[in-house]
Design a protein that fits this description.
Layout: H1 7-32, H2 41-53, H3 74-86, H4 94-123, H5 128-142, H6 152-166, H7 171-185, H8 192-204, H9 208-231, H10 239-243, H11 253-259, H12 261-280, H13 290-309, H14 321-335, H15 341-371, H16 378-390, E1 396-399, H17 402-407, H18 417-426, H19 432-439, E2 443-447, E3 454-455, E4 458-459, E5 464-468, E6 471-474, H20 482-485
Parallel strand pairs: 1-2
Antiparallel strand pairs: 2-6, 3-4, 5-6
Helix pairs in contact: 1-4, 1-5, 1-15, 2-3, 2-4, 3-4, 4-5, 4-6, 5-14, 5-15, 6-7, 6-8, 7-9, 8-13, 12-14, 13-14
Length: 498
């Protein structure tokens, strides 16, 4: 693109090298972080711990002890679990599980960026450096989500690979497109966001033979993954109760305006305005067929669906990463013959530097604080050791602190607590079995600063005494029936938790 020794080439090279080094530094701090960064990673860690203890418990009954919920589809769990088994990782090694899962997510991210560069280079005819700069922009705009122990990075890989092969022709591309679409369906439910526009584009372009191949390949892929899921010892009985019911968190428009929509308005929407400006400068024929149609439909579908889905309680900016991916592809597609290669690279790199600066201010301070903490929290470690010495098989505790639950996965109940707070309020599951477990004395300890009067409708007050600071032991088994322990309606007052 540029000659060696060109001042412009040196300038661009410095920017790219700086962004690459920042990405490596950021990844280093992310991988070694001991606690959650975003997206409540501990929920995924605990699901993997339960699966290592007993594969059938990855998706167990959310309405029975230990009342665990695994919210995501199985593909990512299956991949991480195989690595953990190969490495001989034990269920209690929650930090090792976290690090290995993050490493795998980082690998999926880099593989997805490889496909992004290939899309821009081979499908859209862009110079190699344009693809590299676009990848840098996407990475900077989405840090640190695709480096976490969550299924997002695997979903991104399936998205980028599906687009690449869908934009190609022939049987091989159709079958590979179906494979990646099938993998997407068993990775995360919002895969539907990008599968719909891909499927509709095949139909609108009258690629009917390829649609059949895509569908057949996708069905075979899902079937093979289901068989592998079964071979690993997992069970299907409560899968939907976890991944469908477990995400019924309710909606809150006010929270969406605070937590999710700002990302759309500051990152995705400006890119859409630039795309619209580029479209106005050329014939609309560019979006009536071929790649223009596919990319335009992809962006339109994902923006609308993301705006709707991101009002769900617990949503974050990652709901807009798929629209961002489509927007970058459209931006590159329609800039041709309107912005020079060097000028476009400059725009991409400047935007990437801006995004990287924001991430540095948001997260590197957090990493610095984490580095200054002692290796172990003495108070937490004492509680863990006490519970380990006291609890017997079939006995459980509930803890406010995730680190305690992760240290004793075979005894931890009501994990993840943040999801249960929501599902109890929304009436998603029945908690009568929980009240019965408390009545029968199977919940031996509550670990937290204060003892709530009740938890998820089961009365705690009067049945537990503090045996050491922050640890409350069950000492009274009430004679009343479980039904009397279950409160009808929401908790309204008192020292009570949902």
């Amino acid at each position: 693109m540029w000659k060696v020794g060109d001042k412009q080439a040196v300038y661009f090279g410095v920017l790219r090298l700086g962004l690459l080094l920042f990405f490596l530094l950021f990844s280093y701090f992310t991988l070694k972080q001991k606690g959650d960064i975003r997206g409540v990673e501990s929920n995924v860690v605990h699901s993997l711990q339960r699966s290592l203890l007993n594969p059938a418990d990855l998706y167990s009954d959310p309405e029975a002890l230990p009342f665990h919920i695994s919210q995501y589809s199985p593909a990512y769990y299956m991949a991480v679990e195989e690595l953990l088994k190969i490495g001989g990782i034990q269920p209690s090694q929650h930090l090792a599980i976290r690090i290995i899962g993050r490493f795998l997510s980082l690998f999926f991210l880099l593989a997805a960026m490889f496909y992004l560069v290939r899309i821009l280079r081979l499908r859209l005819g862009q110079p190699r450096w344009i693809g590299f700069d676009a990848a840098l922009l996407f990475i900077m705009a989405t840090l640190p989500w695709y480096q976490l122990i969550r299924p997002d990075a695997l979903l991104l890989l399936t998205l980028s690979a599906s687009i690449f092969h869908s934009m190609g022709s022939g049987r091989r591309n159709a079958m590979l497109s179906g494979f990646w679409m099938g993998l997407a369906m068993v990775t995360k439910m919002n895969a539907l966001f990008f599968l719909l526009p891909l499927g509709l584009t095949f139909l609108m372009e009258r690629r009917f033979k390829e649609v059949v191949l895509v569908f057949a390949s996708g069905v075979v892929t899902v079937g093979m993954l289901a068989f592998l899921f079964w071979l690993q010892g997992h069970r299907f009985e409560f899968l939907l109760a976890n991944v469908v019911q477990g995400v019924k968190n309710g909606s809150n428009w006010f929270l969406a305006l605070q937590k999710t929509y700002p990302y759309y308005l500051t990152v995705v929407f400006p890119l859409m305005l630039v795309v619209a400006w580029l479209l106005l400068r050329q014939s609309l024929l560019g979006i009536k067929n071929g790649t223009g149609l596919l990319l335009s439909m992809g962006l339109a579908f994902t923006v609308v669906l993301s705006l709707m889905a991101s009002v769900k309680v617990g949503s974050a900016e990652n709901y807009f990463f798929e629209p961002l991916f489509w927007a970058i592809l459209l931006l590159v597609r329609f800039r041709k013959d309107q912005i020079s290669d060097s000028g476009f690279s400059m725009l991409l790199l400047v935007a990437a530097v801006s995004m990287g600066g924001q991430k540095a201010s948001n997260y590197l301070t957090q990493y610095y604080i984490e580095e200054g903490k002692p290796e172990t929290n003495i108070g937490v470690e004492e509680k863990i050791q006490f519970l380990k010495s006291e609890l017997k098989a079939g006995e459980y505790f509930v803890a406010d602190e995730r680190e305690i639950s992760l240290a004793l996965p075979e005894h931890a109940a009501m994990v993840p607590v943040d999801i249960h707070y929501t599902t109890y309020r929304e009436g998603v599951y029945s908690y009568e079995e929980w009240a019965l477990a408390v009545q029968e004395g199977r919940i031996k300890y509550w670990v937290g600063e204060d003892l709530p009067d009740s938890l998820y409708g089961a009365r705690f007050n009067g049945g537990f005494v503090e045996v050491r600071k922050g640890v409350w032991k069950e000492v009274v088994v009430k004679s009343s029936t479980a039904k009397s322990l279950v409160e009808r309606g929401r908790i309204k007052e008192g020292n009570e938790k949902p």
